[in-house]
Structures are given as structure tokens and as C-alpha cells.
Amino acid sequence: MRRPVLVRRDRPVRGGQPLAFAVGLVVALLVGAVLLMAAGHEPMRVYQRMFEKSLGDSNAWSLTLNRAVPLGLAGLAVAVAGSMGLWNIGAEGQILAGAMGAAWVARIGGTWPGPMLLTGMLVGAIVGGALLALVPAVARARIGVNEIITTLMLNEIALRLLQWLIHGPWKDPASFNFPLTPMLPDQAHLPMLFGRAHYGVLIAGAVTPRASRTVSAMRASSWPPWPCFDRRASQWWHCSSVRSRSGARASRSSGSRLRCRRSSRRSSSSVPSGPACSSATRFG
Prior knowledge:
Helices cover 62% and strands 2% of the residues. By secondary structure, the protein is mainly α. It has a domain at 72-260. Helix 3 packs parallel to helix 7 (200-220) and helix 4 (91-108) packs antiparallel against helix 5. The protein starts with 15 loop residues before the first helix and ends in a 27-residue tail after the last helix.
């Protein structure tokens, strides 16, 4: 019996990515409909509700865009590393590291002008994520440690570090024992576009084309397809820089999403209670 063999096409399929997206969407809806019917629900009613809550009006659009910013930038970060044959499973931890970097800049620059403070917070977020990604990059390039394991384990380390900061050095004495840090200054808020959507959406829109071109250039260049498996000095440095840029792009989403909720002290029901809140903020 002959076994099927995968062979690279000489030419890409007509339609390319749009066709793949459409096919994937249709398959996902069909599989979801089957599962919903098996659970005793009406698929059309559920899908209608999903559409209304995500794209039904301007407020729904603003919430959807806000949720899409960190997911999209994290996906681009994984693509940057993947273009060099690397797996970045640590985007979640890099986002948290970026949030800590942005919050730290806001704490020391509370009196800075708004544009300077926002720029500093964005740079702090990028540096935080890049430094966290640099650890598995150097370990992979120098001693061959599998980056899947190290990036995945660093997610938990970043989360534990954030918990320690919120419950320890950064904890607000006036938070009534809630895990909160002092509120960010007013000039640290990103301007609003419409509804609850803010300028982080524009930041993501400006970053996406450049990151996409970077990924395409890396794939089409004459670099070795798997340079991070080569431990020569020129290759390990290049590998480390690619991994750090991947972490920087992941953490950029936290810098563009860090916002302050003043209502957290007005009502106990709106106080962020999880460890993933820094400077009385939530990512979402």
C-alpha cells in the first residue's frame, strides 16, 4: 500500500491566504455547529449572539479591537521567531514582562509630560519583553537548550514575579489589602478613539506591516534555514537578536494596552482581584 507523501508546490495555490482563511472559517463554523447541536443549543442563535456582541455596534467593535491588539501582536512575535525556525511559546510571559517594564517607567516618571511618559512606557515594555526572550535565545544558541521548554517555563516565572511585585514592593498601602498597586498618573493614559478603543489600536496597526515585512524578508533571504542550530559566534548572536525582537514585539502589546481603571476604588465589584493586575490595570 502506497503511503501519501507531502511535496512542496511549484506555485502557490490561487487565492493563497484569503482562501485558506475562508476555508478555515467555514470549517470552524461547521464543527462548532455540530458541537453546539450535540450540547442541545441552536447554532444560528448562538452565532447571532456572538456577532452582535463582537461586531453589532460601535461599542462592540471597540471591545473587539481592544481584545485583538495583544493577540495580534503576540502572533506577530511568534511569526518573527518562527521565520528562523524557532518556537516562541513565551509570548504570555513576555507580555507580562512588558507590562512590568511599562508600569515601572510610569512609577518613576509620574511627573513627566504625557508624550514623554507614554513613549518611555512603550520603550520599557519593549525592553522588558526583549530581556525575557533573550534568556532562552542565548541558552538555545550557546548550549542547545530546547527553546520550547525554556520559553514555556518563563511564562510561570514572569507571572510569579508580577504576583510578588503586586503583593510586595509595589502594593498600594491604601488598597484595603487588595492586590493593587498605586494608580497610574493621568498622563499615562492612551487617548481614546471611540467607545472603549484607544490609540493602542493605531500602534498595533503601525507595527503590523513592518513586522510582516520583516518576517517575509527573513524567509526570502539567503540566511541558513536553521541558523540557531549552529553555535558559531556569528550565528548565535543573530539567533539571540531574532529571539529578542520576537519578545519585544510580544511585549509591545502590553505597552499599548496598559490602562488605568479609576472605577476600581469606587465599587468592590470592579476591583481587579487577580494577580495579572498591575497598577490597578487589567489587560482587556
